[in-house]
Amino acid sequence: MIVFFTYSAQNMLNVSIAPLARALTLAEWAVGLAVSLAALFVTSLSQFWGRRSMIWGRRRVLLIALFLALVAAGLFSGAVALRAAGLISSGVATTAIVLARGAFFGAAVSAIPPTGQALIASLTPDEKSRVKGMSAFSGAISASIMVGSLASSALGTWNIYGPVHATGVLILMALLVCFFFVPVTPPPPDKKTPAKVSWHDKRILPWILAALGMFFTNGVVQITTGFVAQDRLNLDPHQAMPATGMLLLAGATGAMLMQMAIVPRLAWPPRRLLRIGLSLALLGLVGFALASTLWLLALCSFLIGSSLGMVMPGYNAGGTLAVEKFELGGAAGVLNAAGAVTWIVGPVSATSLYAWHHHAPFIVAGISLTASTLVAWLHPTLAARRPHPAQD
Fold this sequence. Notes:
By secondary structure, the protein is an all-alpha fold. It has helices at 2-23, 28-55, 58-84, 90-109, 112-123, 127-158, 162-181, 205-232, 237-266, 270-290, 294-321, 328-356, 360-378, 380-383. The chain is 82% helix and 0% strand. The radius of gyration is 20 Å and the shape is globular.
């Protein structure tokens, strides 16, 4: 429930931020910068929060994070309201929105994935159950994207600023769920301090390299969808919000169906999920880069979302299975941070490239996705029958 409410709030902003930028006469690069700055803080703090969740306890970490997210949502909403009323300049509004949606919100939300993934990893000792657990976690995020997209489209049709002001309500609901229903975590059964895991750890580095292209591609597609809907379908900002929501909804639907219904039944090992998911993502990206009708863009978004729905459970399951139990918090933090790294450079570069040439960001995404696909198929670690049996 905490994941669902928090990411519903975040994705309401993702749907509305591109049309909102043009309605408030903000620079397109500011949209990318806000998301990239959030990703920078996620990258910096993910392992910190993952390890703290095993020392301080899940409840304490989540309460701190959600309170910070609520404050950030309030600042974002206030900046938008003041700019819409003409009380602050474009430059002041841009600065406030980038800091609130970027630094503040990113620092807060960065605690949630590693905390949840470390919990799942500690409860699932084998490959099959780990994949199912990570699929359920990722599925909750995908479901939140669906709800956030639908709610943002509906509110945006009524009032373009509606989704912005509704995000704080969803964060508050997540905070209340945490306060009333998350129990105090008992002390760990052993005295080993949760270990810090290096990005260069040879046990998890191949998994990271195989997934980076997927994460970068997903970021490029999501951040440019609002602009693609306006430019290829010839829509104004108000008309574009429902179309943007529909396209993001198509991607989220594909991811959710794959994670919650198909992946658990396939019972594929993590490496196969990576390989097949990345190969399908290449097809979806080519289609998205060339499509000029709403239904074809939606179909390609669905395919890219389905691909992400295969890659994410395989990536998180394979990476966490490769380490010892006392390293799970650190490993979950690194794996989450690796995905966030692509959002540091992805959105701001994608929006800048899109302003230069509308096909440029998709060409760069295609190169990175091809490189990751080759790693998934050819790297010796991922060619092994099973990941490291450290926890078996």
